[in-house]
Fold this sequence. Notes:
Blueprint: H1 22-26, H2 36-45, E1 48-54, H3 68-77, H4 91-96, H5 98-110, E2 119-124, H6 126-132
Antiparallel strand pairs: 1-2
Amino acid sequence: MTSEIRKCNICSYQGPEQGLNQESKLVPYHRHILSRSGLIGLAKEVGLKEIWYEGRWYMDSWWPATSRRFIERLLLKGGNDLDAGYEPVRLNLFFKHPSLLFDLFFGYFLGSKKQDYMIVVFSLDHSSANHSN
């Protein structure tokens, strides 16, 4: 039984026959990091249109202690340790770093300058489907 070699449009992986070198084992071939314009361009190629875009982290919320700004700063001030987000809160961090207390309540409203999260909702573009017939 022969397997079909499929060329990925946005990476160099061509299928299991290509073989894997040490570098390609570090990052799965099916993971792609796209810009908003790149993602929308690929979606248009398969007949989708953008109907909603959100440039914030999906858990970023105005509820106290749920903003991305607060969570990232808590982890940073907690020694860059992910456990700081799961262990009981160390109150001494708030005394050492009063900005944590401010971000606890107002972090959402200040936002984040990072542009590394997005949520895009697509639907079938019926107008382009009608034009192709």
